[in-house]
Amino acid sequence: MTGWRSETVTGWGRAKRSECQVARPETQSGLPDLSVAAPAIGNRRSYGDAALNDGGKLIDMTGLDRILAFDPEIGEVEVEAGMPLGTLVRLYAPRGWLPAVLPGTGFATVGGAVAMDVHGKNHHKAGSFGDHLTDITLIQQGKARRITPKSGAIWKATLGGLGQTGLIARATLRMKPVSGRAMLVTERRAMNWAEHLRLLDSSKATYVVGWIDCTATGSALGRGIVEEAELTPGLTPPPKTPRKVPFDAPPAALSPPVVRAFNAAYYTRVPAHGRTLVRPLDAFFFPLDKIHDWNRLYGKRGFHQFQCVVPLAQADALRAMLDRIARTGQASPLAVLKRMGPGNGNYLSFPMEGYTLAVDLPNRPQAERLIAALYAMTAEAGGRIYLAKDALADGAVIKAMYPDHAKWLGQVEKADPEGRLATDMIRRLDLRRLP
Amino acid sequence: MSDTWIVLGATSTIAGAFARKLAERGDGLILAGRRMDALDAMATDLTERGASRAEPVSFDARDPGSFAAVLDAAQAAGGTLNVAVFVGSMPEQSAIDADPALVDGVIADSFTGPTRFLTLALPVLEAQGKGTVVGVGSVAGDRGRLGNYVYGAAKAGFATYLSGLRNRLGRAGVHVLTVKPGPVDTAMTRGMEGLPFMAQPEAVADDILRAVAKGTNVLYTKRIWLPIMMVIRAIPERVFKKMEI
Ligand SMILES: Cc1cc2nc3c(=O)[nH]c(=O)nc-3n(C[C@H](O)[C@H](O)[C@H](O)COP(=O)(O)OP(=O)(O)OC[C@H]3O[C@@H](n4cnc5c(N)ncnc54)[C@H](O)[C@@H]3O)c2cc1C
Ligand SMILES: NC(=O)c1ccc[n+]([C@@H]2O[C@H](COP(=O)([O-])OP(=O)(O)OC[C@H]3O[C@@H](n4cnc5c(N)ncnc54)[C@H](OP(=O)(O)O)[C@@H]3O)[C@@H](O)[C@H]2O)c1
Predict the structure, then answer these.
(1) In A213-278, which residue ranges form alpha helices assigned H by DSSP?
(2) Which residues of chain B does A26 touch, with a Cβ-Cβ cutoff of 8 Å?
(3) Which position among A118, A172, B36, B148 has the lowest Cβ density within 10 Å, counted as fewest Cβ atoms?
(4) Which ligand sits nearest to residue A303's alpha carbon?
(5) Chain A CB contacts of B191 below 8 Å
(6) Percent of chain B at pLDDT exceeding 90
C-alpha cells in the first residue's frame, strides 16, 4: 500500500510553491507501480519549479538512499537514486574515493544530479556528473530498464533530462581515487572584471571558482576572490554541528547595506597578496550546507537564482549583465563566476564552453524584471539558462537555447507517452511540445 | 569487543535510521524481520556504512519458532548483546472491528511476540551483566484512544512488561529503555493527515541513542509528548470517555 501525504512543496528559492500528494517509498519493489503515477523528486534543491507538480502527485525518492554495491578495486558504487552526494563524500573519502563531480550542495541526490547533469568547481577538467556514470536503472511505465553510455539517445536524453525519460531508480558512479581528506585552497583577490577573468583563464588548478562581489560598481566591477584548490592529505578538524535558521528571516536580514558590508568583509578577509589554507572537504564543496535552511534568510517571499553560461567570446556580454545587476543594487551576497569546459552533448545538459555566472536575487517585482532582461541578454549572447535554477523563463527562449530539445522530446515521448512525468517546469516551459 | 545489536523489525523506518547510526560507529547488527530481500539490501548498505557485521535473519513476531535462530546468530557474532525492538503493526481500528481476528496479530506484533523473544534472551542478558534493551512502545499505549485502542492496549502491555524487565535486569546491570514516540514520519503514518508534532525518524533514532548513553528509563520523543501525555493521563476517565483526541 502506498501512502500519499498532502504537502506544500517549494523549490529551494521558495518563490514557487505547489500543493501536492507526496509518496515516499522505502523499497525498490514499490517503484514500478509508482512510476506510472507521478514524477520523482530528490531533495528539492532545484531553485525553481523543476521538482514541483501543483495539484498532482510526486514521488519523493529520499527514502531510497541505500548503497547497493561497492567495488573497492575501481571505486564504483551503485546507489539508490535518493542517495545524497554529501553522504558519499562522508562515507568514501576516508576510504580514498570521491565522487568525480560535486555540485555546491551535498544534499543534492544522485537522481537529482542525473536529471540536471550537475557540474562542479572542476567542470573545466572533469565535465559533468553524467560523464562519470557507468549505468542508470530507469523505470519506464512500470518496467525497469538499465541504460549505459552505450545506449545512445536514451542516455543523452536522461542526463540533464529533468526526470522525463522515466523514474531514475539507481545509478552507478565511477568515483575518483583521492589520497587526501582535505583541500588545499588558494584564495586570491581579483580587483576587477578583467583581472577576475585573467585569473580564471590562467588557472591550472583542478578546482577553480570565482566569488563575485555584486555590489561593486564602476572600476571595481567584477572584483572578488578566485579560489583554486587541490586535494591534499592532511588533518581536518572535526565537523561542527550544522546551524539552523529557525524561522523566516525579517526582510532586513539581507538588505543592501548588510550585503555590502558582508561582501566587503568577505573580500578583505583575504590579504592583498592572497593566502593558502587547508579546508575540510565538506567546507570546500558544500560551504552553505553548514547552515541548514539558509534559504529562509530571504524571508517568506523567497528568492531567485539567475544562472547563465555564455561562450568564451561573449565575456563582454556577461560583463554587461554583471554591470546591470550591480547597478540595480538588488544586492545578492552570493555570486559565482566560473569558466566551464566543453559540453558533453547530452540533449538538455547545461554546461558549454564559456563563462557561467550565478547570482541570487530576493524575490521582488524588480527582480523579475531584472531577470527577464538578463535572460534576453543571455539569449542575445548565444548562451543558455540553467534549468536547475530557473523559475521565470519563457519556453520559446529555452527551446532556442537548447537546440537538441527535439531529440530529447523524441525519447521522452517514447518513455512517457501520456505525460505522467510532467512537472510544473515542464508545463510552464511547454517542453513536451516542439517550438 | 564491540557491541552487537539484535534489531527486531529491522525493516521499520525508525529501525533503519537507528541501524545506520549504529553501523557508523562500527557495531554489529543482526537484522531480524520478515522481508528477506529488503533485509539483504539493508545489510549491504549497513556494511558499507561501517557495521562490523550486518546479518539478515528471518523473524516473524507471530511465529515463536523463528526466535531461537535470531538469538543464535547474535551469540555467534559475539560482542556485548543488545536488543532493540521496533516490530509493531497498526491496522485501522475500523478494520479490526470488521475482522476481530486481527486483534491477535496486533497484540502479537507489539506485545506477545517481543515479550516472548525477550524472555528467551533474558538468561543471556542476565549472565552477561551488561548491555541494553530498547523497547519501542508508543504514546498510544498511555491511554485508550477512540482511534486505535487495540494497538494502544498492545503497546500498554509491552510498556508494563518492559517496566518489569527493567526492574529485573537492572539488578544484573542490564539497562532497559522504553521509548514512547509520538507520530513519526514513517511508512506507518503515510497517508494519515493532520498528525501533530510529527518527528523525523533520524531525530527519533538520535534521541534513542542519547537515551541509551544516558541510561534513561522512559523516553518520550519528541520531548513535548512527555508533558502532553502527563496531562492526558491525568484526565479523569469520566471526562476522557467523552473526548475524541
Ligand atoms: C546551495 C546550492 C548549490 C548548488 N550548486 C550547484 C552546482 O554547483 N552545480 C550544479 O550543477 N547545480 C548546483 N545546484 C543545483 C542542484 O545541484 C540541482 O538542482 C540538483 O538537481 C538538486 O538535486 P535534488 O536531489 O535536490 O533534486 P530536485 O531538486 O528534487 O529535483 C531536480 C530534478 O530532478 C528530477 N529528479 C530528482 N530525482 C529523480 C529521480 N530519482 N528520478 C527522476 N527524476 C528525478 C526532478 O523531477 C527535478 O526535475 C545547487 C543547489 C543549491 C541549493
Ligand atoms: N510511526 C509512528 O508514528 C509511530 C508512533 C509510535 C510508535 N511507533 C512504533 O515504532 C515502531 C516502528 O514503526 P515505524 O513507524 O518504523 O513503522 P513501520 O516502518 O511500519 O515498521 C513496522 C515494522 O514492524 C514489522 N512487523 C510488523 N509485523 C511483524 C511481524 N509479525 N513480524 C516481524 N516484523 C513485523 C514490519 O515489518 P515488514 O516490513 O515486514 O512489514 C516493520 O518492519 C513500531 O513498533 C510502531 O508501533 C510508531
Answers:
(1) 256-268
(2) 13, 16, 187
(3) B36
(4) 1
(5) 1-5
(6) 93
Q: Is B12 on the interface with A (CB under 8 A)?
A: no
Say how far apart CA A331 and CA B123 lie, in whole Å.
68
Q: Does pLDDT of A413 surpass 50?
A: yes
Q: CB of A363 within 8 A of CB of A301?
A: yes
- For B191, which of A5, A27, A67 is closest by C-beta distance? A5
Phi and psi at A173, nearest 5°, equal -100, 135
Distance of CA A139 from the midpoint of ligand 2 (Å): 28
Q: Which of residues 13-32 of B touch A (CB under 8 A)?
A: 13, 16
Question: What is the predicted ipTM?
Answer: 0.90
Q: Is the shortest distance between the CB of B159 and ligand 2 below 6 Å?
A: no
Domain ranges of chain B: 4-240
Q: What is the pLDDT of residues A106-119, one digit of tens each?
A: 999 999 999 999 99
pLDDT of the residue at A246: 52
Helix (H, G, I), strand (E, B) or coil at A158: helix
Query: Ligand 1 site: residues with CB under 6 angstroms?
Result: A 12, 39-46, 50-51, 61, 81, 103-105, 108-109, 111-113, 115-116, 118-120, 162-163, 167-168, 288, 388, 423
Mean pLDDT of A410-431: 97
Given a contact cutoff of 8 angstroms between Cβ atoms, the answer to whether A162 and A423 are in contact is yes
Find the helix or strand (DSSP H, E) in which B9 lies.
Answer: none
CB A61 within 8 A of CB A41: yes
> How close does chain A come to B172, measured CA to CA in Å?
37
Among A266-275, A393-402, A408-417, B222-231, where is mean pLDDT lowest? Answer: A266-275
- Closest CB to B187 among A4, A26, A28: A26
Distance to chain B for A80, nearest Cα, Å:
10
Nearest CA distance, B187 vs chain A (angstrom): 7
Fold annotation for A182-398: Vanillyl-alcohol Oxidase; Chain A, domain 3 (3.40.462)
Domain B4-240: give its CATH architecture: 3-Layer(aba) Sandwich (3.40)
- Domain ranges for chain A: 182-398
Is A63 within 8 Å of chain B by CB? yes
pLDDT tens, position by position, A143-195:
999 999 999 999 999 999 999 999 999 999 999 999 878 999 999 999 999 99
**β-strands A303-310, A354-362 pairing:** antiparallel
pLDDT tens figures, A224-242: 999 999 998 766 554 455 5
Query: What's chain A's length in residues?
Result: 435
Higher-pLDDT residue of A366, A269: A366
Give kind and range of the element (H or E) at residue B85. Answer: strand B80-85
pLDDT of residue A260 exceeding 80, the answer is no
Question: Which residue type sits at A341?
Answer: G
